Amino acid sequence: MSDFTRCNCSLCIKRGSIMGVIYLEELTILEGKNYLTLYKFGKNQAKHYFCSICGIYTHHRSFTSPNKYCINLGCIDKINYFELNQVPIFDGKKI
User: Fold this and answer.
1) What pTM value is reported for the model?
2) Is-contact 59 72, C-beta < 8 A?
3) Could you give the C-alpha distances from 90 to 25, 30, 65, in angstroms and in order?
4) I want to staple 22 with a disulfide (CB 3.0 to 4.6 A). Which of 26, 33, 59, 81 is the partner?
């Protein structure tokens, strides 16, 4: 994963996560899939997933790039996203 972003849409700006962008076939959920809850956003086209136990946003499938997922880097233990410099911002406000 080498593509990182933040989004300034009304949902993402409040959660403040840095997201890693991957292709659909690159995502494998190893455990806890049965705990994921779906929230549809942006005319019910974007699919955002949350843990139903703790409420943390884990990932979403964007309607602007339907072949990709955005993963909350805070959910990946081996990534320290505080070390990432100059994370680009996706202008979700305009969509």
Assistant:
1) 0.84
2) yes
3) 22, 28, 12
4) 26
